[in-house]
Amino acid sequence: MKNLNFLSEFMEKCGYSTGDIARAVGLQRQAVTRWLVVDDTKLSYVIKFSEAIGCDFLISYEVPEVSQERTNMAIDKALFNKTIQGFMDSRLAFLRLALWKTNTTYTALADKLGLSRSSVQNWLMKDDISFRYIYLIAEAMDWTVDIYFRAKEKAE
C-alpha cells in the first residue's frame, strides 16, 4: 500500500476501524475496505472522515523555488489576491498553490501526466481528486507530498 498508507497508519495508531470510517463518511464498510485493497479513494471522503472525528486533514506539496519571471505578473497577483478567500477554502488549495508557485499551467500538468487538460480542470471544478493522482502529480513534477491529521485547536 502506497497511496493510503497514511490512513492505515492513522487507523492503527488511533484505533479506528473501517466501520468507523464508513459511518463517518456515510458508506458501507465494504466500500472503505475496498479503498484499502485498491489503495485509492477520493480526497473528499478522507476530509469528511477527519471532520467527523474532529481533526484537520492537511495536504501540501513541497515545491522547489522557481523564478517568477512572468510577463503578466501584476495581473496574476491581482487575480490571485482577488480570489484568495475562495482559493484557500478549496479542498484542492494545496494543488492550486503549488501550480501557482511553480508557474505551471493546467495544460503543462496534464501533459506531464499523460492526461487531457479537461481532466485537470474537472478535478478543480469538482474540487476533488483521488489520492492516486495526488501522488502521480508529485512524482511527475518532482514535488514532495506532506499528508497529516492534526487535532483541531479548541476555541476559548
From TrEMBL:
CDD domains: HTH_XRE. Gene3D superfamilies: lambda repressor-like DNA-binding domains. GO terms for molecular function: DNA binding. Signal peptide: none annotated. Residues 6-60, 91-148 form the HTH cro/C1-type domain. This is Helix-turn-helix transcriptional regulator. The lineage of its organism: Bacteria, Pseudomonadati, Bacteroidota, Bacteroidia, Bacteroidales.
